[in-house]
Design goal:
alpha/beta; 22 helices; Rossmann fold
Length: 671
């Protein structure tokens, strides 16, 4: 029974309940081995041949001792001595072949599981990712997949090997001397008892080890990514985090020491039991030799077989624990594969082509209902992990407040909070906020129609539901009620890929891959030429900047594009959308936090992008609002006002208040 700090043992429950192995689960596990059945058959054949070779060596020793040496038969001595050399050589070659077959099966299963997992996760809704920790997903793709692979390539193979070896050894031992065989097997009950008692303790300490590793890995995942590292530095908590990490690593160290000592103690006990069996065999066998019942060579052969037998029996005694434990990893992998997809594509769905860009919302409501959302079961963690999460969440909350995101609960920007709505409302009142956006429904009874080529501006206070509305257009979420149409087609009737190809979206927080500028741009159009890349970048006012870089379009942008400024990232995102050439454009016009030069460049780029396209823009700038064909004013998930700029001003409502407190200042600043 082997234990590794970063392995799959940590996904056992912390309770003493053993994993349940059902026939249905076992059949499903074995299905993953079906594509490799010929490799497995070759591996079993190699195991059988290798076992047969190991049985020959003790017989050669018996012949040497009982016949060859006493008879001084030199030719036979040379032959048998050569056999003692040839057999290990052949065994080594067979073991290499067996290892290759094992590796093909094991790595193949890992490949199949990872591809299946990744493909399933790619089709999960955005809501799934906003409510699932990245570390949990990484655990499924790494640790659990490797653990599942162990069930086929290691655990099952080990069980089969031990059964074949034990059976063959007992048959040969019975052929040699049945009385010594009976004595050898009498020790088996003690073997099983010791293996179960110590195996249970080893399993428990393995759980503790992986629990400690889970806490350590969770802390590393949250503090060593770019956002976590930035947060730690901004709050000056580098020493604190180093000290907390020291505590977690210390816990891992202590458990590792205990595990090593207990494991060694376990094998010492097993060794002593083996010694008892060996002593009985040699004691009784020696007496029988003295009585001329059989020869010395028989005892020597028995001693060799005894070592092989006890090794196999030990493996079989541990097999139930090892197998049930490795099956846990398969269960966790299947949990992901079996997750129902929230955003489903209908059979025979329509492929959208030559879209004109007519968009209609018909009595659309949406709610971030987490009760019905399929989520992963999390690794059980104890101790101070909750405090780490609390500190991290609190710090993120402070950053959000600093950025002006004061909405609580389930708000229109797609963020969720664990606080009760009433509590957040009281906090909003204490903070003297004009109007809380906390509510149950993120969107409620949204209806409007956009004609092809029109520009619609969404305005309203933070948390009013603007971002959530835009997320419904490319089906990042589906409405809880109501329908959304493109060119008269319900979004649910269209294929997801064709819908994605017709909609271009630039979010406020631009994401770039840790790769070159060229690769990030080609994500929009994989077969784009250099001329097309440059044309798109010129339209987005970013080509001159790229040309001045030492590596040009082959410049690596860094983790999430952090080597670029906010304006440069935003213009790259715009260039990427231009390259995609969508019929409908969705923009979160994030220019309020940029310098005036970057803002001007982006505003000019937006004019090129929106020309001739249906555009839905979360407007932050007065220039966009004045150019809009329709302005939708949102508050608490509803459209409360709609119309052109001058029409809304006459209403003297929310839009007028926003114009006087925010948008009009921009015009005064420019004048």
């Amino acid at each position: 029974m082997g234990f590794h700090g970063g392995g799959w043992w940590g996904y056992l429950s912390a309770s003493d309940e053993k994993p349940q192995v059902t026939w249905a689960l076992l059949r499903r596990v074995l299905n993953y081995s079906r594509p490799y059945r010929w490799h497995i058959l070759g591996m079993l054949l190699a195991i059988t041949v290798s076992t047969g070779l190991t049985l020959i060596t003790p017989l050669i020793l018996r012949t040497l001792i009982d016949q060859t040496i006493p008879q001084k038969n030199l030719p036979q001595l040379v032959l048998l001595a050569s056999g003692l050399l040839v057999i290990p050589a052949l065994g080594g070659l067979i073991n290499v072949f067996q290892r290759r077959m094992n590796a093909i099966v094991g790595e193949g299963v890992i490949y199949d599981l990872r591809v299946a997992l990744f493909a399933r996760l790619q089709r999960m809704s955005l809501r799934f990712f906003t409510n699932t920790r990245v570390g949990e997903l990484m655990s499924r793709l790494n640790n659990d997949v490797v653990g599942a692979q162990n069930a086929i390539s290691s655990t099952i193979v080990g069980i089969v090997t031990n059964i074949i070896q034990a059976t063959a050894v007992i048959i040969v031992m019975l052929g040699l001397e049945w009385r010594l065989t009976v004595i050898s097997v009498l020790i088996l009950p003690l073997f099983i008892l010791a293996a179960r008692k110590m195996g249970a303790r080893l399993r428990d300490i393995a759980r503790q080890a992986m629990d400690a590793n889970a806490q350590m890995n969770a802390m590393m995942n949250e503090t060593l990514n770019i956002g976590g590292a930035l947060l730690v530095k901004l709050f000056g908590r580098t020493d604190l985090e180093a000290e907390r990490f020291k505590g977690r690593v210390s816990n891992v160290r202590e458990i590792g020491i205990n595990r090593a000592v207990l494991g060694t103690f376990f094998f010492v006990i097993i060794g002593l039991l083996s010694a008892v069996g060996t002593a009985l065999v040699y004691g009784v066998g020696g007496y029988l030799v003295i009585q001329d019942v059989f020869t010395i060579g028989t005892i020597v052969a028995f001693g060799a077989y005894l070592t092989s037998l006890y090794s196999s029996l030990q493996g079989l005694a541990n097999a139930p624990v090892e197998f049930a434990t490795s099956i846990v990893s398969f269960e966790r992998v299947f949990e992901v594969i079996d997750l129902p997809r929230e955003i489903e594509e209908k059979p025979g769905a329509l492929e959208l082509r030559e879209v004109r860009g007519e968009l209609e919302f018909d009595q659309v409501s949406f709610r971030y209902d987490l009760d019905t959302l399929p989520l992963l079961s999390q690794v059980e963690r104890h101790g101070s992990m909750s405090s780490v999460t609390a500190v991290f969440s609190g710090a993120v909350g402070e950053v959000k407040q600093a950025r002006g995101d004061k909405s609580g609960g389930v708000n229109g920007d797609g963020k969720s909070s664990e606080k009760p709505v009433q509590e957040m409302r009281s906090e909003a009142e204490e903070a003297d906020e004009p109007r809380s956006q906390a509510r149950l429904n993120a969107l409620e009874d949204i209806s409007f129609k956009v004609h092809p080529g029109q520009l619609v501006a969404l305005v309203g206070p933070s948390g009013a539901g603007k971002t959530t509305l835009t997320y419904l257009i490319p089906r990042l979420y589906d409405p809880s009620h109501g329908r959304i149409y493109i060119d008269g087609h319900d979004l649910r009737d269209a294929t997801l890929d064709s819908l994605s190809s017709q909609i271009g979206m630039v979010t406020q927080e631009t994401h770039l891959f840790h790769d070159t500028i060229r690769t990030n741009l080609l994500y929009a159009k994989l077969d784009a030429t250099q001329l097309e890349l440059e044309a798109a970048c010129r339209s987005a006012n970013i080509h001159d900047f790229i040309s001045e870089l030492s590596d040009g379009y082959d410049t690596v942008v860094g983790e999430r594009g952090y080597r670029l400024s906010g304006g440069e990232k935003q213009r790259l995102a715009l260039a990427r959308v231009i390259l995609k050439n969508p019929a409908i454009l969705v923009l979160d016009e994030a220019t309020s936090h940029l310098d005036s030069e970057s803002e001007l460049l982006i505003q000019e780029a937006l004019k090129h992008i929106m020309a001739g396209r249906t555009s839905i823009v979360i407007a932050h700038r007065l220039s966009t609002i004045l150019a809009a064909d329709l302005i939708l004013v949102m508050d608490r998930g509803r459209i409360v006002e709609r119309g052109a700029h001058h029409e809304l001003l006459q209403l003297n409502g929310i839009y007028t208040s926003l114009y006087e407190t925010q948008f009009n200042r921009q015009g005064e600043a420019r004048s």
